[in-house]
Specification:
10 strands; Thrombin, subunit H; mainly beta
């Protein structure tokens, strides 16, 4: 019942590819790293309201998370390194500037707004606990 089409909303997910060492202008390693992720991929997923009662917390009360996302596709490669756009994405209207890669655009060009805290896989679906973050671009 959690994955009814009427309960789904547009969400973007970017998956972890690798962690690359940064180099300076002369090509020397700086000791810092940058994370390389896929381009955001659009999904229609069931996203819960903000965390409320303990009885409704599938990940318990010890884990600090804000929302849960239910993914029907059990082959989705989501893990703790993935990031989500939940509140920063909307469906384009006529006349809006559309990103060519996928028919959605980011609200104000903002970066992701949720990170994954925990993933729970079952034979029927994947439950993901996500935490809201503020990311400067």
């Amino acid at each position: 019942m959690r994955c009814l089409d009427r309960d789904k909303q547009l969400v973007l997910i970017s998956f972890f590819i690798e962690k690359k060492a940064r180099e300076d202008e002369q090509g020397r390693l700086t000791g810092k790293h940058e994370v390389v992720r896929t381009e955001p991929i659009p999904y229609y997923l069931s996203v819960s309201a903000s965390k409320g009662n303990v009885e409704n917390s599938p990940f318990g009360i010890d884990l600090d998370y804000d929302k849960t996302v239910i993914i029907e596709d059990t082959s989705c490669p989501v893990d703790e390194s993935s990031v989500f756009w939940v509140d920063n994405v909307s469906i384009p209207e006529s006349g809006d500037e559309i990103d060519e890669g996928f028919n959605v655009y980011y609200t104000g060009g903002k970066s992701h707004d949720y990170t994954v805290k925990r993933v729970a896989k079952s034979p029927n679906c994947i439950a993901v606990a996500i935490k809201h973050v503020e990311v400067a671009k």
